[in-house]
């Protein structure tokens, strides 16, 4: 039983690291798009406020 567990631990660790890296990548990409989408709205609001 210990032989089986010791053989499975390295692939499980690698899989966990890959999954964490993919999740971080997706979150950073989604966060960048969210900030880009907010910035034009804020700049248009600022230009409207300054024109009043």
Structure report:
- It is a single chain.
- Helices cover 96% and strands 0% of the residues.
- The protein has one helix at residues 2-51.
- The chain is rod-shaped, with a radius of gyration of 23 Å.
- The model has no long low-confidence stretch (mean pLDDT 81).
List keywords for this structure.
mainly alpha, 52 residues, 96% helix, 1 helix
What's the helix and strand layout?
Elements (H helix, E strand, L loop, with lengths): L1 H50 L1
What's the short story on this structure?
This protein has 52 residues and is mainly alpha-helical. The chain is 96% helix and 0% strand.
Give the N-terminus to C-terminus distance in angstroms.
Answer: 76 Å
The amount of helix comes to over 70%
Count the beta strands: 0
Query: Beta-strand percentage?
Result: under 5%
- Rg from alpha-carbon coordinates: 23 Å
Unreliable parts: none
Number of DSSP helical runs: 1
Transmembrane segments: 6-26
Biased composition (Basic and acidic residues): 29-45
Region (Disordered): 29-52
Keywords: Membrane, Transmembrane, Transmembrane helix
